[in-house]
């Protein structure tokens, strides 16, 4: 179903957020993820939308003569947990931005504000939820537009991040991220939210398992 919303992403309800220190479409609904907070990294699979976003992000890096970032089962578990949490608890227009986490026995909660005073709430999430011991750095996206396909969704997300200097520099290792070497990437898509997590350590859990979803 097409939305009557203006198709130009600049005019849709769009939120993008990044920590600079340290840091739906019908098609997406056909591959909704399962609850994962206690998931086994050895069985974690990406949804079609998550695969497409990872593919387009790495293709963009390739166009900039940068290596592809390996997909990480652990960081993808964190990403999936976060988009599901945001879908249930995020309040549009509030003081807590997209890096916030709700109250849960499974992770430390925080109201993440633009002064980055709660930066450790992000960095620590891989260690709280998985075997990944390194810090995690997240970029996040929200839109209520109804996309026609996973590819259209992924393109819109990436264009939004490319339009933001902070996001763009993290994706292509420029600015404060020049010396960083991303060796792990996690992708989460659920409802109106998408996030990508980056890490400098290799994930001991390896990549998400292949699947037909």
What would you note in describing this structure?
The chain has helices spanning 26-29, 48-63, 73-89, 119-123, 125-129, 150-162, 165-171, and strands at residues 14-18, 137-143, 184-190, 193-199. It is α+β, with helices and mostly antiparallel strands and 213 residues long. Strands 1-2-4-3 form a four-stranded antiparallel beta sheet, with helices on both faces. Helix 2 (48-63) crosses helix 6. Residues 1-38 have low confidence and may be disordered.
| Strand arrangement, major sheet | 1-2-4-3
The percent range for helix content is: 25-40%
Q: Over all CA atoms, what is the radius of gyration?
A: 16 Å
User: Which percent band covers the strand fraction?
Assistant: 5-15%
- In whole angstroms, the N-to-C terminal distance is 22 Å
Which key terms come to mind for this protein?
single chain, 213 residues, alpha+beta, 4 strands, globular
Topology:
Layout: E1 14-18, H1 26-29, H2 48-63, H3 73-89, H4 119-123, H5 125-129, E2 137-143, H6 150-162, H7 165-171, E3 184-190, E4 193-199
Antiparallel strand pairs: 1-2, 2-4, 3-4
């Amino acid at each position: 179903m097409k939305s009557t919303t203006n198709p130009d992403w600049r005019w849709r309800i769009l939120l993008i957020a990044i920590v600079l220190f340290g840091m739906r479409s019908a098609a997406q609904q056909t591959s909704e993820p399962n609850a994962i907070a206690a998931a086994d990294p050895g069985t974690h699979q990406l949804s079609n939308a998550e695969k497409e976003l990872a593919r387009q992000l790495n293709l963009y890096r390739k166009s900039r003569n940068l290596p592809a970032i390996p997909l990480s089962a652990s960081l993808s578990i964190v990403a999936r947990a976060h988009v599901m949490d945001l879908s249930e608890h995020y309040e549009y227009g509030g003081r807590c931005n997209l890096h916030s986490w709700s109250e849960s026995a499974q992770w430390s909660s925080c109201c993440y504000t633009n002064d980055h005073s709660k930066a450790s709430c992000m960095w620590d999430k891989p260690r709280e939820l998985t075997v990944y011991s390194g810090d995690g750095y997240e970029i996040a996206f929200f839109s209520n537009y109804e996309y026609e396909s996973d590819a259209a969704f992924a393109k819109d997300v990436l264009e939004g991040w490319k339009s933001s200097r902070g996001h763009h520099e993290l994706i292509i290792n420029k600015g404060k991220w020049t010396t960083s070497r991303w060796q792990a990437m996690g992708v989460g898509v659920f409802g109106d939210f998408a996030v990508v997590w980056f890490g400098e350590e290799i994930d001991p859990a390896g990549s998400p398992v292949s699947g037909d979803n």
